[in-house]
């Protein structure tokens, strides 16, 4: 079976800095895979390449049988890749519900005149969007916050809302950039369970950047390790835990 995502010698340089070099990964449909590495290793740059924020200096990205190189981020979202950000990016001045509803509009079918005149498919599609957005909020335990401004939510809830919003674009592949950052151990545990659950329920493939090793080792089937922009190792959590190069890269930290 062809992988859902496959990159080949993907590289990105900023002036003299080789942020990502020969990044070769594959993801099969339904897999939950980790991407780890010390600070500055190139993890977020890799996500930015996969989502069209940056154009690769060299290399290829195949997703679901199509090349993504040169496509704008919104096109890539439409093809089925959604992401969350290391620094949460919500629409602060919108309500929790509207943050999710906006994301559904990637798939809306009514035309602009229908929306302006509030006729045709507009009414029925808007009702459906609201219903689906409320369902998503309930999965993420945010139903009673739906009328709050996103900026008023505590940090852990903002992180969950960002994932809910990413799911609203109905992706095949979800890229999570440090979803547990700033969470306490209890919140991290709940998040781990939630990530495993949404993967099954929404039939997702997930690529996860995370510094919390217990989270990565606990839920990922395979892990890629980057260091100084290069792939240092790739394997199962057990293989990565006992890889001497990886242990060295983390300066003796428990992996
Ligand atoms: N837009 C940019 N312009 C110049 N250099 C950049 C840019 N984005 C990233 N870099 C550099 O590329 C390298 C990789 O950065 P990147 O943010 O991808 O690492 P990371 O693994 O995500 O790190 P962290 O774990 O700290 O988030 C770093 O040296 C960084 O300074």
Automatic annotation (TrEMBL):
Q: Which domain of life is it from?
A: Bacteria
- Keywords assigned by UniProt? ATP-binding, Nucleotide-binding, Transport
Q: In the UniProt record, which is one GO cellular component term?
A: plasma membrane
Q: Which GO terms describe its biological process?
A: D-alanine transmembrane transport; L-alanine transport; L-isoleucine import across plasma membrane; L-valine import across plasma membrane
Species this protein is from: Megasphaera paucivorans
Residues crossing the lipid bilayer are: none
Work out whether the entry's keyword set contains Cell cycle.
Answer: no
User: In Gene Ontology terms, what is one molecular function of this protein?
Assistant: L-phenylalanine transmembrane transporter activity
Q: Which residues form the ABC transporter domain?
A: 5-253
Tell me the protein's name: Branched-chain amino acid transport system ATP-binding protein
